[in-house]
Amino acid sequence: AGMKTRIKAGEYQFPKAEWKNVSQEAKDIIKMMLTVDPGARVTIDWILKCPWFTGTVPETPLDMHPMFDTDNCEQMRVSFFS
């Protein structure tokens, strides 16, 4: 509950279970994209030139279990689209 509000306030985490296969570099880029202060936030131009996006990125297996959990899927739908 309140996920969007917490993200807008800069209060978020990367839970180990869901994010264990995501590189620290990718998490750092996401943090820069979620910076609350728009003046300090990275721009789309910076993102598009970022080596993580322009280089060869190893394929990362994603844990799709949460997507198949109907309760979790409904919670995500409500959180993102409400």
Strand element count: 0
Q: What helical percentage do the residues reach?
A: 55-70%
Assembly state = single chain
Residues in β-strands, percent:
under 5%
Distance between the termini: 11 Å
Low-confidence stretches: 78-82
Main β sheet profile: none
Number of helices: 7
Features:
single chain; 82 residues; mainly alpha; flat
Question: Could you characterize the architecture of this molecule?
Answer:
The protein has 82 residues and is mainly α. The chain has seven helices and no strands. Residues 78-82 have low confidence and may be disordered. Helices cover 56% and strands 0% of the residues.
What is this entry, summarized?
With 82 residues, the protein is an all-alpha fold.
Q: Which helices and strands appear, and what pairs or packs with what?
A:
Layout: H1 3-8, H2 16-19, H3 24-33, H4 44-49, H5 51-54, H6 65-68, H7 70-81
